[in-house]
Amino acid sequence: MIDKQCEQILDKYHNEKGSVISILQDMQESFGYIREDVINWFAERLNIPSSNFFGVTTFYAQFYLKPRGKNIITACCGTACHVKGSGPIISKIRKELKLPAGETTSSDGKFTVESVACVGACSIAPVFIANKKVFGKMTSEKAAEMLKEIDKGKGV
Ligand code: FES
């Protein structure tokens, strides 16, 4: 299974050694995140040290070394959102999802909660994004409702 998916990616780049970022993008698209065994597969086939792949992966925020949840909740932690109370709302969401300290993805794989710097919508702070839908002037109550709707499978 891994071989077939990797071969497809490799074919696309014609074994070019300079395609590390593109290969990582396809790898993430195909496997959901950057897997160590998959990196090792490419490193061997392209005769590139695995550390080159890991170096790029850890440099760019777009790559994930752990599986992410089915639903992505992004909290803006820029100054305006922070001042308008994003912190307690994030804590409430994390508590609701029973996320242990340091974890971003719920144990059932349903949710990932992550934070970003200013998303450029300060006038509607605090801003949260759930599965690409923007929620402005977020409150703890609205956040709880949002999680419930997503969990019921209604989406947002
Ligand atoms: S600080 Fe959150 S949108 Fe600007």
List the strand order in the largest sheet: 2-1-3-4
Helix content: 40-55%
Mean pLDDT: 92
Radius of gyration: 18 Å
CATH topology of the largest domain: Glutaredoxin
Q: Output the CATH homologous superfamily of the largest domain.
A: Glutaredoxin
Count up the domains: 2
Tally of helical segments: 7
- CATH architecture group name of the largest domain: 3-Layer(aba) Sandwich
Bound molecules: FE2/S2 (inorganic) cluster
User: Which stretches of 5+ consecutive residues score pLDDT under 50?
Assistant: none
Secondary-structure content class: alpha+beta
CATH class of the largest domain: Alpha Beta
The fraction of residues in strands falls at 5-15%
Oligomer: single chain
How would you sum up the global shape? elongated
